[in-house]
Description:
The chain has 412 residues and is an alpha+beta fold. Helices cover 48% and strands 12% of the residues. Pfam families: Acyl-CoA_dh_2, Acyl-CoA_dh_N.
Amino acid sequence: MTTTENRPDTVVTETVDWGAAPADRAGWLQRAREVRRVLERDAAAREKAGATPHAEVALLKDSGLVTLLGPVEHGGGGQEWPLAHRVIREVAAGDGSIGQLLGYHLLWFWAARLVGTPEQIEAVEAQATRERWFFGGAVNPRDGDLVIREEGDELVWNGRKSFSTGSRVSDVTVLEGVIEGTGTHVFAIVPSHQDGISYAGDWDNIGQRLTESGSVTVTDVRVPWAAAAGFVDRVFRPRVYNTLNVPIIQLVFVDFYLGIARGALESAAAWTRTVTRPWLHGGHERAVDEPYQLDLYGDLTAKLWAVEALADAVADESLALHRDAWTVTAQQRGEHEVRVAALKARATEVALEVTSAVFEGLGARATASGHGFDRFWRDVRTHTLHDPVAYKRREVGAWVLRDELPEPTWYS
C-alpha cells in the first residue's frame, strides 16, 4: 500500500455544507448538480486564469463525488458505473476540465478492480476511500513504455510520459510500464508527490486547460513486487476484464463531451432568453419568437437528447460486465466495445456541432471573450482529437459487415 503524506494542501475557495452523504441514485445526481452550480458560476474566469485546480479537487472531495464508487463500509457511496457516468456529465456541464478530472479519477480508482487480485482490490479501495485519494495516471500509450528493472523485492520505474492528467492535483498516480528484457506489463499505484516524479507543468492547450495534463518524468520510483497489480508470485493472472479499461475510458470521454455540450446549450439558451435581441428586420419583439431560434434550439436539443439516451443505454449494458468481472467473455467484451465505439462517434459529432452552432442563437455580442462561450467548443475540440473517431466508425462497420469484434488494444 502507499501513502499520501507528501501531497500539497488544498485551499477551498467556497464553503459548502454538504450534510450527510446521499442515500440513493437521485440524491447523488442532485449532489452532482449542486457541484455543477458551484463550478459554473466562475468557470470562464477560472479557465482564463489557468490556475492549478486544487480548490476544484477539494470541492469534488468534500462533496463525496471522488468516493462515489467506494465501499460504503469505508465511507464511500457504494454506487455503480451507470450512475458514475451521469455524475461525470453533470459536473462537466459546469466545467469541462473538472468533469474530465473526475472521470479519469474514477477510472483509475477502478484500476485495482480491472487488474488486481481480490486481496489488492479490497486493500486499495478501502484505503483510497478512507483517505479520499484523488487519482492521476501516467499511462499514455503513444509514448514509449516506462522501463522497469527488478531489484530484489522491488520494481524500479524510469521514463517519461507526454500526458499525465491530474498530475499535480492527484494524491496517487497509476503507473504502467514493461519489465526490461521482457514483454511483461505492470500497473502500480504510487504517491504522486515524491522526489522520483517530476511534473513539467507544460499543459498549454486551447481547451480542457485545467486538467493538469502535462508531461511527467519518472526517475527511480520504487514499488514493492507485492504491489504489482494482478501478480501472484511474480506471475500475472490474466482475465478478459483486464481489457475493459478501454471501453470504460471511452465512455468517460463521452460523458464529458455530452456534459460540455449540455452546458453550452443551457448557457446559450439562458443568454438567448434574456440578452439576445431579435433581428431588426424579422418582425418579432423577442429573440425567443424568431423562427430560426426555435428551429436551432429544437434541432440541437433533439440531437443531444438522442445521444444522451444512447449513452444511458450503453452505460446500463456495461453493468453486467462489471458485476461478472471474473467471468466476462471476449465475446461480451467485444460486443460492448462496438456499442461504445458507435456512441463515441455520435457523441463526438453532436458535441462539436452543439458547441459551435449555439453561437447562431447567441449573437455577436456574446463573442466577447469575457463571457467565455468559446470555452465549450475549445474543450470538446481539444479532447475529441484524443484518438481518431474514424477508427470508431470502422469498428462498427467491421462488426456489421464482417461480424468482426474489435481486437483489444489501448484504443479499442
